[in-house]
Amino acid sequence: MRSQDLDAPLAMHLAQFTRKGRCHNFHAVPWPSVLDAAPCELAQHYRTLLGADLSRIDASWSGSAVDSFFTPHGPLADAQRKTADAFGADATFFGTSGTTTSNQIALESLRYRGADVLMDCTAHQSLLFAAEAMNVVPTPCAGTIENPCVDIEETANLLAQRVSEGRPFDILVLAATGYDGRKLRLDDALPRLVASSPTTALVIDEAWSALHAFIPSLAGSTALAVASRLSLRAPVLVTHSAHKTMAALRQGSYLHVLGSSSDIEKVRLARYRIHTTSPSWPILASLDLARVHAEQFGAGEFTRAVTLRAKLEAALRENPRTADMLASPRQDPYYDMDPLVLRLYVGPRSRAIKDWLLGEHHVLVTIAGDHLVVRLHFGVTDNDLDALINGLSLLASGSGPSALGPRATSPQGFEPAIGSHSCEYIIPYPPGVPLAWPGELWTDRHATALAQERTRGAEIYYLAAGGGTRRTASSDSMALGTVLHPGAEDKPT
Ligand SMILES: Cc1ncc(COP(=O)(O)O)c(C=O)c1O
């Protein structure tokens, strides 16, 4: 049977798509493309284990066959130990269902009935959903509705106020690195926050910056490095989507613990509760390889990628039409941009432009609002860069997409009345960061931001707190669940 005769639509679509050859990927590390840069020996290990031998290692190996996934004593225990050492953690757990699940495990390990959680107002949905059975208060927010960030000073004040009232927060969740390239300056923020409430446990989502631990200029300001310099009286749990910035298979994730043996044991048991009982051994092997790869080549590849970023910026600046795309970074004392990310302003057609770049130029970028987000990571080559620059130049000379792009197919009729409180999470996806939380006052700024997301063709999800996807009329009485809107927590004086 010829492959085109197969009645397997997804498989056939992917076969067709990949026939176009290498995709110029500026979103997350595509592990095969790092092989071009890695020296023969390591590349050979990757090729053998994740290519030719994949069918042999993708099996149900738990227990005595290779190692126990949940209580390892053999090679998996060794691999996790070496990874913890490399990142500066007391323990590291490998995960094979993404940081979505690692975040859930982290919060599960700290959970108890009635726990109070101060949640980063920009947190990824996985953290919000995982915290739902606890009392969640969003951190004070700065920035704009479209571009929010944590108000660190106000958050520190709120933490201190709760300590002085004898009811400190049990957990503080921070979203330290985002899909849009934003990066919380943990070396400045964390000492301030920990000093305000030293008994509060920390969950820090560093989904987009696992690689930074291997870069000399960045290693000292990662969550684990900063936290290990502080005198903490509570555990610190850090999550990394290894697959986003390191040479790991999709869904490969690290969950690191800085804490006592009892804290580590709680994470182990939470992982037992939540993680799939059928872990992927190819993903586990790739997490081990990715650590070796980053140790050997992280620093060198980072320098190379920074040079490519500068080259891209210079090429765009040369042409007055593309120079306009170079966005000036937001000024905030507690936030930086990831040094490997360039954000390009392209206006409300961002999604259509993203689709056009992929369809016409085989270039993959992601978007954040009216910007394209370009990540220069491991494996990006001069050839990839040329393809991107060519696409952007054609765009600037007027040959981009004609329309705004496809409208999303998700239900779109409902939205709260201005001046009412949202009954639900309202989440544009991607990226999965809510535009509004349950209980949040719905303003004309929210309405405008939602309209813009719809125009761009984003999928919009309406989710009641505590689960369910009930569609609520805005006149319904508000079902707050356990989530409080910012105004529900007394402002610190
Ligand atoms: C900040 C943040 N945290 C967590 C996740 C979930 O990571 P994963 O895709 O590995 O499940 C994402 C996904 O993009 C993210 O942007």
Q: Give the overall shape.
A: globular
* Average pLDDT metric: 88
Instruction: Give a quick account of the main beta sheet: strands, pairing sense, barrel closure.
Output: 7 strands, mixed
Distance between the termini: 74 Å
What bound compounds does this protein have?
A: pyridoxal-5'-phosphate
How many beta strands in the DSSP annotation? 18
Percent range of helical residues: 40-55%
Strand content bin: 15-25%
Structural class: alpha/beta
Q: Supply the number of helical segments.
A: 18
Which segments are poorly predicted (pLDDT under 50) over 5 or more consecutive residues?
469-482, 484-493
> What gyration radius follows from the Cα positions, in whole Å?
23 Å
- Give the spatial strand order of the biggest sheet: 2-11-10-9-7-3-4
